[in-house]
Amino acid sequence: MTEPKVVLVTGGASGIGAATVRHFIARGWNVVVNHFLESEAPAAEALVAEAYAAGLQGLAVQGDVGRDEDCRRMAVAAMTRFGRIDGLVSSAGASRMVPQHDLDGLTLDDFVHSTTVNTAGPFQIVRACASALRAARGAVVIVSSYGGITGTGSSMAYAASKGATNTLTLSLARVLAPEIRVNAVCPALVADGFVQRLDPELFERRAAAQRDRSPLRKIGHTADVAADIYWLVAGASLMTGAVLMLDAGLHLNMD
């Protein structure tokens, strides 16, 4: 009997990360669920329990992707438990809600923190998992943001860090080929995402605007993003270095 493949998902206890973990479980993958906060441990363990209920296996690992030693520890934990890493989804992210026009609302610390988690974090976890992914001829998906392309979103610091993440995706795809494919997804606003958790009223305003302006007249859900992530990991055999906009066509109607 063929052993299930293994995916490691950073930021896997909530939002897009949690939806991604569930999507991989539903398709027969063992899962390694990374979470940052101790308070997220119950959610991560609940996802592991879902894996076992499906006849699979899972592992919850606390760690900060902004710390290289934590990234290496996560990779070692996955390899010790499963002996392989077939897919890596870098979904951990950080932001602080600061309106774009509020230039004085941002500090250097905001830029450093966003870049550490959103840009250096994906680099460090990919580097930590690279040897295992090469052995498996696996794939990486980095969760970026629509704001990284348009300069919009929760803050300028966040958008700038995600723009850097998009170019990081191109660099990693180039140097890790041919064994490892690396792609990124750039969701616009999605239901059950971090904006809705941090500021429900702002979410509703932005959701209405996105429905009005996007050709598909809708916003997505974290589960929609998870489905596209799965396809990029498990299929999409000719794709690497792609930065995909998941925005219901919103970019077509930008002024």
Order of helices and strands: EHEHEHEHEHHEEHHEHE
CATH architecture: 3-Layer(aba) Sandwich
Intertermini distance:
55 Å
The CATH homologous superfamily corresponds to: NAD(P)-binding Rossmann-like Domain
| Share of helix, binned | 40-55%
Query: Unreliable runs, pLDDT <50, ≥5 residues?
Result: none
Structural class estimated from helices and strands: alpha/beta
The CATH class designation is: Alpha Beta
User: How many E strands?
Assistant: 9
Average residue pLDDT: 94
Approximate strand percentage: 15-25%
The rough form would be described as globular
CATH fold assignment: Rossmann fold
Major sheet size, sense and barrel closure: 7 strands, parallel
Query: What is the overall number of helices?
Result: 9
Number of domains: 1
Radius of gyration: 17 Å
Largest sheet strand order: 3-2-1-4-5-6-9
Write up this protein.
The chain is of the alpha/beta class and 255 residues long. The protein has a single domain (6-240), classed as NAD(P)-binding Rossmann-like Domain (Rossmann fold, 3-Layer(aba) Sandwich). The protein has helices at 15-26, 41-53, 68-82, 108-136, 147-150, 156-176, 194-198, 200-213, 222-234; strands at residues 6-10, 30-35, 58-62, 87-90, 139-143, 181-187, 190-191, 220-221, 243-246. The strands form two sheets. It has a seven-stranded parallel sheet, with helices on both faces. Helix 1 (15-26) links the parallel strand 1 (6-10) and strand 2. The radius of gyration is 17 Å and the shape is globular.
